[in-house]
Amino acid sequence: MEIILIRHGKPTGAINPKLSAAGFENWVSNYNLSKIEEGSLPPKELGGSLSSHFIVGSNLPRSIDSACLCVNKEPDLKFKELREMEIPSHKFPFEFKAYTWLIINRILWLLGFSGKVESFKAAKVRAKSSAEKLHELAVQHGNIAVFGHGLMNKYTAKELSKLGWSITSKGKKYWGATKLKI
Q1: What domains can be seen in the chain, in order of their start residue?
Q2: pLDDT single digits (tens) 9-44
Q3: Between β-strands 54-57 and 177-181, what pairing exists: parallel, antiparallel or unpaired?
Q4: Which InterPro entries does its entry note (predicted)?
Q5: Which value, to the nearest 10 degrees, does the dihedral of the CA atoms of residues 92, 95, 22, 38 take?
Q6: Is the pTM of this model over 0.85?
């Protein structure tokens, strides 16, 4: 059995303008609605290697669009638990580039300041639940390919390891694939 956790392609919302705190909140909303940039294509060998896999994805457009681009169909199963770990926003009277806001807010989130979004602790619980569901799907279907998101893939892989899965390769960038076997 194999589970492949694939990070989505580069979203159209992956831009880095200078923003206020309120502007960053809008940036996050737009990013979550993003599909994949026209020029961000999956490696050819990735799509070809997934013909025998049951396809799973989050319910975010960039995940669904990535599956369509890679395997020419929407995921066989979509579930919201695979969504990216949420990005908080805090009201500071500054302007920063979007990626700077992202780093600041992620650090605060990791330190326990989650604001209106799920906490880091709750997100890790969601990753554990996702890993358990993916394990069950692998038992049912054999090979699973998951079109997901950076941090959620990372923590889901950690939880799959605790269930006996071995990580055989890791991928972090857009279209990166983390492969696990049992």
Answers
A1: 2-181 (3.40.50.1240)
A2: 999 999 999 999 999 999 999 999 999 999 999 998
A3: unpaired
A4: His_PPase_superfam (IPR029033)
A5: -140
A6: yes
